[in-house]
Every structure is written in C-alpha cells, then in structure tokens.
Amino acid sequence: MDLYEKIKELAAQKNISIRQLEEKLGFANATLRRWNKNKPSVDKIQAVAKYFNVSVDYLLGIEDDKKPRFSPELNDAIENAEAYEGTPLTDQDKAILRGVIAAYLENRDKNKG
C-alpha cells in the first residue's frame, strides 16, 4: 500500500475526508492527492503522522507497526533540544539521541519480563 492509500485508510477510520484532513492540517486543496505522483516534504509527512498518531515509518511502509516509537511529547522534546551551550542539536545528534532512548526502552522492556 502506498503513502496516499495509507492516508486514505487512516482518514476513513476517523470518518473524515481527504479534503477535511487537508483543511485540518492547513494544506492546500489536493495536496495529499498529488502525493501519488510527487514526493511530499518531510514536514508534511510528519504533520500527517502526528495527526493520526502513527509513525512516519508506518506511513512510508518501512514498518508495519502504526504506533510511533516515541510519544509526540518526547519527539517534540528531541526536536527542540539544545546542546549545553544553547545551540540547536544537529539532525545527526537527534538521531543518536533517538537511538539511545530506543535502546534504553528496549532494554527496560526486556528486563520487565
């Protein structure tokens, strides 16, 4: 299933039309339909994922699990994190931070059982 089909399915589950979804997200009319032929920007994919509370990886078909690895609050904290000196973290720093958190959570869950 491609990106647009997944979005249509998620919208149907919430009983909203694609046009209503575009309005809620502040997208221009037919933006989502154009994703059949054009590559969407990362920020727009993230907005759709956040709206439906699914992972970007799920929307892109990378993983089958709908649930995001991290809560929206944790994702926001990572995105807005700053280094000690107050400079923004690089994308590489954020990826490393997500990896460390994911490893911690996986290890914690293994030790619970």
TrEMBL record:
GO molecular function: DNA binding
InterPro entries assigned: Cro/C1-type_HTH, Lambda_DNA-bd_dom_sf
Alphabetical UniProt keywords: Coiled coil
Pfam name, any one: HTH_3
Annotated ranges, domain HTH cro/C1-type: 7-59
UniProt keyword Transcription regulation present: no
Entry coiled-coil feature ranges: 4-38
Keyword Transmembrane recorded: no
Name recorded for this polypeptide: Helix-turn-helix domain-containing protein
Organism lineage string: Bacteria, Bacillati, Bacillota, Bacilli, Lactobacillales
